[in-house]
Amino acid sequence: MDPGREAIAAAQFIVAQRLSKTYSSSRGPIEALKDVDVGIPRGQFVSLVGPSGCGKSTLLRCIAGLEHVTGGTLSVDGAPVREPPEKLGIVFQRDVLLDWRTVLDNVLLPVEFRDLPRRDWEDKALALLRMIGLGEFAHRRPYELSGGMRQRVAICRGLIEDPSILLMDEPFAALDAFTRDELNLELQTLWLRSPKTVIFVTHNIGEAVFLGDRVLVMARRPGRIAADLQIDLPRPRPLAVRETPAFATYAARIRETFEALGEFRRGS
User: Fold this and answer.
1) Residue 93 located in a structural domain
2) In whole angstroms, what is the distance from residue 234 CA to residue 72 CA?
């Protein structure tokens, strides 16, 4: 590595360099990711946007230590990723709640997996639920909640151990537009209160710009970073920021990137 790249890498919390991921199949190898170069500083909120099948979720799983890279390097806080990093939280598109457990019990599930004393974590779990407006539902079952409420519980579960890294894989994709807006605001509030390194996967350009300090645009298979935009909009961001010229300019730049990649026709 040349000295310039080495200095840049040293200043980052998550670093991928020429990262590749290839899967084996009966029809031959499938390149999911190729030559992904990206550095993410500690505490940055990064939106990852791209078409279906471009490798967004694969990249997230590699960072989570759930998939092993087949080429290049990937490190978190200077250590190669060979297993899930310490202090990692994950929120998936589906809430994956256990309907036979209470809301509080679902939030405390990661604590139980690590065999930590439950009584030491209950107050924090209840505080998280209150912060996100679900304090009175702590002893309800998930099947009694709406989809948006269930996803709030999943976010609390991802935050229970105060992770340094929060990976979010299209967590609001299945929700209606009104609930999605609510959760965008609530997620921003949670992050501002306790900044973490967040990588947020979405197909929604507006959501990516609204939430991110930075938007990484991914090109289709083999997945790679096609554009890297810094989002210079003041926080906290109200929903009305989406009506401003600056917001429209960022969204247009992302759409232009997709047009240049042939993802949709200009004017469509």
Assistant:
1) yes
2) 36
